[in-house]
Amino acid sequence: MALDSAKKQEIIAKYGRKEGDTGSSEVQIALLTQRISELTEHLKTFKKDHSSRLGLLKLVGQRRRLMKYFKKTNKEAYLNLIESLNIRDNI
Description:
Blueprint: H1 5-15, H2 25-45, H3 50-73, H4 75-85
Helix pairs in contact: 1-2, 2-3, 3-4
């Protein structure tokens, strides 16, 4: 269920702070959001795939922790990010 490299590079280019930025909170949250949406679509088809469901829950928890940190450090950029990704502010 990994992202293909072209899609990953597109996300990095869109949300990265500079060229080749893969470690910033914005990029990590955007990549996790993409993986979460793909896994969600997969689980709509394969309802009994419990190992993928567990992986999805782990990804959601990881994204939640990153979002909590990002909100604490840079609230304005956090609000812009959640608006562009169409995710809720439930932190």
